[in-house]
């Protein structure tokens, strides 16, 4: 009886996650209705909480796929509760991604759940576990952009549209960055099972620095320009022009004097 109760508690949604979802819902409502005196503050809280929710779902997808692939230790680690405080690297998975959104308006992928890969048999299963996280970002982006590509934005408040566009852009950048075949990112995790043992051993020491390498390369102006051109192309394909996500970012940074320029005009 104790074991059964424990297993149920391993999968019970955490109050921490419920609280984050509640903040997202309330501030989303405040953004939609214009209830907040400062729309930028409401957008900031809405996008930040929604971004954290997406990070939790990203890691949950990894954990859930690993569980069904054979790693039965996942539940005991608390990964199925959607509680970000249970992650192995909360700094890398929650704090830094939020900081990067605030500083640069870019969705930073992170790694949090520790999966016991030795429990999992089959290369396809390993690849699917790695792919499930960024695929969650793809799904989140599709949901955020649905009003745009369905053509149902008439009557939707501008501040809410800007917030959705910016949130979608974060999901797109997170998915693209995470699918890069760079050690330490999920894209490499997808192809790693298919590499030879010799190559995996040679590449393994680079994994802790993979994300740093990506952002160092993105500092190169030419590379940065190409990266954002790709992001803009994806966003246009989803029905969102780049000025909409730009307005969302400006509104998100409510502490700047020009944050509401898209709402008030020049």
UniProtKB/TrEMBL annotation:
Alphabetically sorted, this entry's keywords are: Cell membrane, Hydrolase, Membrane, Metal-binding, Metalloprotease, Protease, Transmembrane, Transmembrane helix, Zinc
* InterPro entries named among the record's database cross-references: Metallopeptidase_M50B, Rip2-like
Organism superkingdom: Bacteria
CDD domains, sorted: S2P-M50_like_1 (cd06158)
What cofactor does this chain's UniProt record say it requires?
Answer: Zn(2+)
Entry's Gene Ontology molecular function annotations: peptidase activity
Q: For this entry, list what GO says about its biological process.
A: proteolysis
Family under the similarity heading: Belongs to the peptidase M50B family.
Protein name in the entry: Site-2 protease family protein
Q: Which organism is it from?
A: Streptomyces neyagawaensis
């Amino acid at each position: 009886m104790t074991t059964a109760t424990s297993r149920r508690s391993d999968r019970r949604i955490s109050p921490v996650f419920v609280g984050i979802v509640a903040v997202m819902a309330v501030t989303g409502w405040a953004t939609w209705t214009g209830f907040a005196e400062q729309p930028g503050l409401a957008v900031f809280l809405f996008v930040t909480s929604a971004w954290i929710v997406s990070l939790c779902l990203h890691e949950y997808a990894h954990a859930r796929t690993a569980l069904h692939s054979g790693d039965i230790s996942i539940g005991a680690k608390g990964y199925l509760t959607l509680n970000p405080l249970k992650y192995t690297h909360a700094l890398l998975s929650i704090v830094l991604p939020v900081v990067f959104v605030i500083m640069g308006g870019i969705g930073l992928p992170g790694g949090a759940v520790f999966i016991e890969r030795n429990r999992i048999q089959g290369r396809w299963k390993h690849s699917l576990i790695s792919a499930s996280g960024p695929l969650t970002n793809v799904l989140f982006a599709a949901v955020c952009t649905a009003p745009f590509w369905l053509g149902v934005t008439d009557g939707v408040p501008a501040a809410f549209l800007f917030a959705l566009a910016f949130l979608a852009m974060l999901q797109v950048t997170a998915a693209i960055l995470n699918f890069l075949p760079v050690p330490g990112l999920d894209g490499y995790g997808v192809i790693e099972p298919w590499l030879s043992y010799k190559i995996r051993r040679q590449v393994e020491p680079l994994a802790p620095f993979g994300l740093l390498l990506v952002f160092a390369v993105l500092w190169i102006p030419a590379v940065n320009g190409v990266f954002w051109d790709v992001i803009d192309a994806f966003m246009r394909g989803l029905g969102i022009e780049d000025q909409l996500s730009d307005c969302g970012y400006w509104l998100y940074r409510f502490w700047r004097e020009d944050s509401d320029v898209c709402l008030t005009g020049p």
